[in-house]
């Protein structure tokens, strides 16, 4: 049992920032330049939607040691404000909430399907669930 849990942890997807130095602008207009590191031992559990079905991922929180700005995979937070990086769509995954992320190639596919077929995201999500979840549609 312990070996199975260890194997699951080893193959689980890990999403975190690569930022090591805080580039947040302080109230005085200057860059903080504090060091950024892992904030907690535990990590949020995400469901990642990919073309091959859903996978679980750990979303690791990093914080600036000086100003407390939160650094995450693809974005950073200052208080209640969320700022996505300009290149976040060049990553492999886009984190869209505290519980959800999408593979970028799936989002691009959905975007083209919505444009060409004039369909809604809700319909694509229902189709995804039918295909990947054995015919069960989430309401």
Salient structural properties:
26% helix; single chain; 139 residues; elongated
**Helix and strand composition category:** alpha+beta
Largest sheet: 5 strands, mixed
Q: What is the chain-wise order of helices and strands?
A: HEEEEEEEEEEHH
**Kindly, what is the distance between the CA atoms of the first and last residues, rounded to a whole number of angstroms?**
34 Å
How many strands in all? 10
Look at the structure and give the mean pLDDT: 88
> Which of globular, elongated, flat, extended, rod-shaped describes the shape?
elongated
Q: Count helical runs.
A: 3
Give a verbal description of the structure.
The protein has 139 residues and is of the alpha+beta class. Helix content is 26%, strand content 29%. The protein has helices at residues 2-11, 104-117, 121-132; strands at 13-15, 36-38, 44-50, 53-59, 62-64, 70-72, 75-78, 81-84, 93-95, 100-103. The strands form two sheets. It has a five-stranded mixed beta sheet. It has a five-stranded antiparallel beta sheet with strand order 2-5-6-7-8, with no helix packed on it. It is elongated, with a radius of gyration of 18 Å. The two termini are 34 Å apart.
